[in-house]
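Justification of resources, computational component.

The compute hours requested in this renewal are based largely on the per-chain cost of generating structure records like the one below. Each record pairs the submitted sequence with a full structure-token output. That output is archived, and it is also reused by downstream analysis tasks.
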Amino acid sequence: MAQILAPSTQWQMRMTKNPANASPFTTKMWGSLFLKQKTKGTAKFSTKFRVCASKSESSTVNRLDDLLNMDIRPYTDKIIAEYVWIGGTGIDLRSKSRTISKPVEHPSELPKWNYDGSSTGQAPGEDSEVILYPQAIFKDPFRGGNNILVICDSYTPAGEPIPTNKRHRAAEIFGNKKVIDEVPWFGIEQEYTLLQPNVKWPLGWPVGAYPGPQGPYYCAAGADKSFGRDISDAHYKACLYAGINISGTNGEVMPGQWEYQVGPSVGIEAGDHIWCSRYILERITEQAGVVLTLDPKPIEGDWNGAGCHTNYSTKSMREDGGYELIKKAILNLSLRHKEHISAYGEGNERRLTGKHETANINTFSWGVANRGCSVRVGRDTEKQGKGYLEDRRPASNMDPYIVTSLLAETTILWEPTLEAEALAAQKLALRV
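The structure output for this chain reads:
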């Protein structure tokens, strides 16, 4: 992200007024998402349920599509709530639907629910019930109307957060008065890669072979350089419809790879918005018959990996004299480098090699306008003497609840010893 602006008021997580149309996506709008399959013979893809495919001669798809896009509001006050949670791997998203008697504006109006944790790797079969606590709500861009997506976290029946519930600990950190007073802002750059189904090879790449070397693909246009733009654009609009604080998108360095930015967001909101945006992206790629991966190094060799750069600032950093506090924050981050790296995403060692705009995973570094460092400070921040820092270490599959709360903890709540601070300042050539 180029800079951090003022956060939106959507961090209060309340619903806006009803949209005029039942659903933002119609058959016509979805049509360009799908690879052409009008040639005779067997279809190339195994997707069995193509609701939004081109209209068939039998009109079966037309009738199904009409039902999917039906506006039920004239006939009932009931709505559909899609409860979304994080599964046992810590990166997979699960969801299921339930009927709610009337539209809601806040997650506190929604009932708790449960699911079979033994089927998600989060509970044993003999005691498999896991309880969902609604935490944030967004408008549902797939069902439209008053229907909603509900971001939940998971607890035991006794009310204890299960091990994969990272939101609970993040909420504790962001609920600390010192953290609240500093109004931490986050701008997260989520990179992802689109894969062809079945072969699991990047979209636009010749199967079993490689495209031309990197260079012409970043932010490019053209059928030979940009692959998956319709998916990126559909996701952009769906996030705006949902109320996610998405701020931009662009094609990335490796062909078939894209990025979108969420923020600036305040505190726990950053994690809620990233997880909901990931869920929406999973649903869109599902309907498009394309596979989404957040692997930090999907293709080995001379190809860029996928990160989740996290821009961060506090109230004090954004005020006059904030640059000295930014340098103090960088010093703290250097002293907890190993702790942060261990929490910044699985497989990140394959990405943080010191090449392809990354720092080496074993060495902490910082610099102004240097994208080969662990932490980058922008030229404007240096010039103005206030602003934000960019932590370039998080992988694309990182948990935003962990990364954002750890940044706040390390830079606001944690204090190093004077000796460690002096040694780190000398090593990093920092004057704080």
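Residues 1-5, 8-20, 27-55 have pLDDT under 50 and may be disordered. Residues 269-288 form the longest helix (20 residues).
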